[in-house]
Amino acid sequence: MAPEVHSAPSGSGATHAPMHDVIHIRNLRAWTLIGVHAHERDARQELRMDVWLRTDIRPSAGTDAIGDTIDYSTLARAIREHAGRSSHQLVETLAEEVAAICIDDFGAAGVRLTIEKPGAVPGTDAVGVTIDRGRPEAGGGNSTSEGGGPA
Predict the structure, then answer these.
(1) Which of 26, 36, 44 shows the shortest CA–CA distance to 91?
(2) pTM of the entire structure?
(3) pLDDT confidence of residue 24
(4) CA dihedral in degrees (21, 71, 100, 133; nearest 10)?
(5) Low-confidence spans in the chain with pLDDT less than 70
């Protein structure tokens, strides 16, 4: 999720669209009931999440005030609490809900989110999904994507 830079043609009088910076949370752990198999429904499982939030950090950089940015501590707590209350069969469902929290509740212009289930499939470290979501007016995607970090 590389910052997008939009530039207007020279002499057009148009203004530059804001560059989107990235706030990230790496390896956030949450525990939830998730899975399609009966043995997965017996106890909460650990999930690991990487969250990349597209936002403009210039207002908070100018004021040095937490109220002018996305508070990643509060967001991490909200994600953990949501996961703790959730009970889904698919990681995909939880991923969509977490992306909506980032955008709708915390005002991110967009989010790239990876959720992994460690040890879910024998012979692997983890399995999971990565999604990219954003506000339509922010040019955010609505597609799944592969990769381990900001594109």
Answers:
(1) 36
(2) 0.79
(3) 97
(4) 10
(5) 1-19, 138-151
Q: What is the pLDDT of residue 99?
A: 98
Tokens at residue 130, please?
Answer: 């990565």
Contact indicator for 30, 95 with CB cutoff of 8 Å: no
Spatial CB neighbours of 12, under 8 Å, sequence gap ≥ 6? none
Q: Which residues are catalytic?
A: 117
**Spatial distance between the Cα atoms of 55 and 53, rounded to a whole number of angstroms:** 6
Distances (CA, A) of 69 to 4, 6, 97, 108: 19, 22, 21, 9
100 closest CA partner among 60, 142, 68? 142
- Let me know: does 40 contact 89? Beta carbons within 8 Å: no
> Residues 117, 34: contact at Cβ < 8 Å?
yes
